[in-house]
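Protein modeling request. Please complete all fields; requests missing the sequence field cannot be processed.
Requester role: graduate student
Desired output: 3D structure, token encoding
Chains: 1
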Amino acid sequence: MALIVAVGLRASTATAQQPDQAAVIHQIDAAVAGRFDNVLGFTDVEHYSVYRGEDETHPAAEMTVRDTYKKGVGKEYTVLSESGSGIILRFGLKPLIDNEKTINLPGNVEKSWFTSANYEMKLKPGVPTDIEKLNGRDCYVLAVKPREEAPNLIVGTVWADVNGGTLVQIEGVASKSPSAFAGTTHMMRQYSNISGFSMAMHARAESASMLFGRTVVTIDYSDYRLQLRQNK
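Delivered output (232 residues):
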């Protein structure tokens, strides 16, 4: 009898601690909206590395850029340094940066946000509390699927901080291949909380194509300088 009672108590506690899905999604939506409303601009330094085949130690090409974002305008990139394969730099990294500029134009950037407007979101059941520790932060874990297919939208998982709903990590596969020659692209991005807002710190994308084989691109973000709205 004691064992049955103990099991029942544990089940009851787990049920009591399970978060409300609608409230969690609302919290994430609010965090994204808050970032857009309050971050008027920022600069950061981004280091891109491209690896070919099975070698993830020696980059085939590297590029360091300064990213300047202004709300209502978009992003501009200034190349600080580059090295390695000229072909990869010209046909790989530079188009990647151009694509980032396009994605972040006003009217486009809103379509890539991790919000319920763009994604179907469902809490992943966990034991015992539906909360997972990731990078030292307590997170809600949600399965996400985009409402429309696009190369920059993922089918996968989002980790959101239980304290405020800010993004901690995303991971999944691109919902649409960027070209007929490219295979599935696996993507991951990690975020830090800077001045209360999610800012990317590390990203990784792995893909395979008929022409180039296996390619891994990593991005490391540093030296953030945020321009925030002043509260009146």
